[in-house]
Write a structure and sequence with these properties.
This protein has helices at residues 2-6, 21-27, 39-48, 55-67, 77-82. It is mainly α. Helix 3 (39-48) runs antiparallel to helix 4 (55-67).
Length: 94
């Protein structure tokens, strides 16, 4: 009957820690920086980096989500569903 407890519910599966581009860059080390740029410039830079063709739109989509603040949203639904504190997404990079 536990499934019925979730019937009709909408969960926001975002973490409890807001993350921005600068946070992601810092997590990758002191040699990585984050500089906001237009999506067109990001696409050109990623394409010129030697990325695989499928990676260009994937990475531009991620960049777009970061630039739009999508990763800055926070909530507690994930904690409630897990029954514990969620791991920091930045800690998973280490």
């Amino acid at each position: 009957m536990e499934a019925l407890a979730h019937a009709g519910r909408i969960y926001e599966l975002v973490g409890e820690q807001a993350i921005g581009g600068a946070d992601l860059a810092r997590a990758h080390g002191p040699h990585v920086t984050y500089q906001p740029e237009t999506l067109g410039k990001a696409r050109a830079r990623i394409a010129a980096s030697g990325a695989e063709l499928f990676q260009v739109p994937m990475l531009v989509g991620t960049y777009s989500a970061i630039a739009a603040g999508f990763m800055s949203r926070t909530g507690s639904d994930l904690r409630q569903l897990l029954g514990r504190e969620p791991r920091s997404p930045l800690a998973t990079l280490a």
